């Protein structure tokens, strides 16, 4: 008691600053103690959850497989299937269990098709999982809405089309993108209508996702991509060019040739690339005429096009550029020359060293 | 000089130390808060992202992994196999054998059925010449692999060779012994593809410490906390630095360094700035600063992004000798880079890069060890002269210590809530205990290494990168 | 009559279980592997009648498994590979290395069973 009093007296003699510091130190110390205790709680909670998840996962997997294989020949569900549905229905209200079930179902949806995936879809409906996904759409947090849309997309739920479509102009871009993916998943090319009026930029990531979604469906009629090629939104144009390449849209070649004078360099370069793919010989002559005005990237792409579409009359042009200042073009020119006039190409090897281009010097070992 | 002037000078010095310490602590607090917000936002944004589509897409951009290797014979075959098993579709691997004196090349040729091929290298960056040449596999299963054998030129030179040879838009520069998780590439490439209002020039990730972790078949099976106190402290240090520091800098677009162990770059820009600098020991920091400077000078909007997910696991030094030598090198690298680009500092033409990032790094990273050492010396002098006001000194020391512990625990806490890698029972306690010990176990050595680094930089020009000698799981610098 | 042995290499646990169930119902004996290394071990030790393998697997890919079987072990055990759609290049490589059949994901397990039976008859 006296000792305690002694410390207090000692403390009170300190200058103000020092007292303040000790107070702050005291606060920090209590924070440390609190955080430590909390940390321990968080960790044991997480550990327990992990064990539960592992156990439930095995349990649900087994149930699911049993469900999938206890179907009978008729359309309706068998007794075994119905009882499994009931069992799962009771688990679904619990968020963590729901998450596990959904991830197992989703894992399988990706891998199997046909009657199996239809069965899975029926399970999704009957257990009420769909209702939870739909309820997410009314949540006020954008990332919850996005998760809901994602889930409905993955399980290919088209009944909710109207509910989801209204998010197409949501202020948050992640929600808009999720909606776009949903629409494309449900309606394939029809779902791309939003491109007509899209003013926000389409990121590469999103473009790849859209393309992947489209690719999942075979034998389909691609719609008219000309309006998108003429869009004022450069990313839409870029996307349309990718579509032209993947779906071999020879019919849009003239529009593409017009795009060779687009104001954005990246677009001009990708147009040259797709024209290579589509055998755009008309473009070849145009570009040849304008060659010196092209940017370096366009020139390199043009030579790649030339490599594929070269004809003997192009020889003088190719020869002229054997000594182009860019190494890559030199190399391409040499390779093209090799393919159209092997003798002249071999003749180059006999040139004295100081008359050779850097590319020729490098090639000397491989001839 | 009379006593009152001396007193005034001393008071001034006290205030300066005080101001420095307070601003350092304040900056840590601000950075932690920003980091927290950025991490939460990142997790929200990515909670529903479907990475699987990108990884299996042939339309995802191609990435070349460049991994320089020097005398890595012991583990090189396994490491390469691990690199080849990434789940990304459009990527290839270039192993640059930087004039190894061991049998790395022979082992690779045998394991992967390699044969020499003719390959024209477009030397956009000048590098040391090829030695054995370029090798590719006869087996289509290893089509992604290319091994380049060249004359020794150091890590930067090897990376530059990789830059010259690669044909893809993006390159990932990694240490060959780094374990890359299967989805590392698609997570790291995401910022490059997603950001539409600026050009992403580089992206870096968190480096996790793999000591004592069980890695089998190139896959991370089990995460364990190593018993070695030094390694444990480094784990804590990395968690603090990455979770509470780098995330904030990423948000402020002020990242000055991307770990040399794993980073993805826009190849065109990397080549346009001239590739890695072979005359510095901190080539990973220097190229990022140079790329940033280039974009600033061009006045184009750009970003250097940062991914907090654990994607890359690597071994940390487990002996004090190697640790000090590593930190010594980092110090010299920082000094070299900051000096080389001193034009940027406090220069309004370089925007926040020049006005915030550079000064911060100068004051709180480069100068910190010096100021701290001066402070300690000063304190010692005061003790000798019996001039110490112990009630002040003691209270400050306790406060500083407690701050450090709090930061560490906050870092641990954010780790639990985000990526939760250390799940085993009892690890939590150990890490908390570590927070209390770390200021004694790690910090003094970092300080010592930094001072040695400064000394070596200014007075010992003969020190270079040094050969890395592999001894099984740990590296010793020769 | 001896049951025909099938080695299945697939790292998706749910799918694995599903296929195992289905194939065992058809009267086959299933040996399961979760990565290419395990698959090769099983193939070497048990000499199966058929191998089903995913291409994307940790460490040793499905392609390596095929390559190992055809070039190192020199067995002509029929191999069916499956893979996520969009990897045409992989498919070609697989066939070049000696795979007998290919199924893109998502696939119908029923169809898989038909193809398995066809290759084993």
Q: Can you tell me about this structure?
A:
The complex is a heterotrimer of chains A (367), B (478) and C (121). With 367 residues, chain A is mostly helical. Chain A has helices spanning 2-12, 16-69, 79-91, 95-111, 115-126, 129-136, 142-154, 161-165, 173-187, 204-215, 226-229, 234-246, 253-258, 265-277, 281-290, 296-309, 315-320, 327-340, 342-348, 358-363. With 478 residues, chain B is an alpha/beta fold. In chain B, the strands form three sheets. In chain B, strands 3-4-5-2-1-6-11-8-12-7 form a ten-stranded mixed sheet, with helices on both faces. Chain B has a two-stranded antiparallel sheet with strand order 9-10. In chain B, strands 13-14 form a two-stranded antiparallel ribbon. With 121 residues, chain C is an alpha/beta fold. In chain C, strands 2-1-3-4-5 form a five-stranded parallel sheet, sandwiched between helices. In chain C, strand 3, helix 3 (62-73) and strand 4 form a beta-alpha-beta unit. In chain C, 45% of the residues are buried. The model of chain C has no long low-confidence stretch (mean pLDDT 86). Chains in contact: A-B, A-C, B-C. The interface between A and B is large, with 53 and 49 residues.
Features:
heterotrimer; B: 478 residues; Spore Coat Polysaccharide Biosynthesis Protein SpsA, Chain A; ten-stranded mixed β-sheet; two-stranded antiparallel ribbon; 15 helices; 14 strands; disordered C terminus; C: 121 residues; alpha/beta; five-stranded parallel β-sheet; 21% strand
Any chance you could write out the topology, listing elements then pairs?
The complex is a heterotrimer of chains A (367), B (478) and C (121).
Chain A: H1 2-12, H2 16-69, H3 79-91, H4 95-111, H5 115-126, H6 129-136, H7 142-154, H8 161-165, H9 173-187, H10 204-215, H11 226-229, H12 234-246, H13 253-258, H14 265-277, H15 281-290, H16 296-309, H17 315-320, H18 327-340, H19 342-348, H20 358-363
Helix pairs in contact in A: 2-3, 2-4, 4-5, 6-7, 7-9, 9-10, 12-14, 14-16, 15-16, 16-18, 18-19
Chain B: H1 3-46, H2 51-55, E1 63-69, H3 76-84, E2 91-98, H4 104-112, E3 114-117, E4 130-137, E5 145-150, H5 155-165, E6 170-174, E7 179-180, H6 184-194, E8 199-209, E9 214-216, E10 219-222, H7 229-251, E11 262-266, H8 267-272, H9 283-298, E12 302-314, H10 320-340, H11 351-366, H12 368-384, H13 390-418, H14 427-441, H15 443-459, E13 468-471, E14 474-477
Chain C: E1 5-9, H1 13-25, E2 29-33, H2 36-46, E3 50-54, H3 62-73, E4 79-84, H4 88-97, E5 101-105, H5 109-120
Parallel strand pairs in C: 1-2, 1-3, 3-4, 4-5
Helix pairs in contact in C: 2-3, 3-4
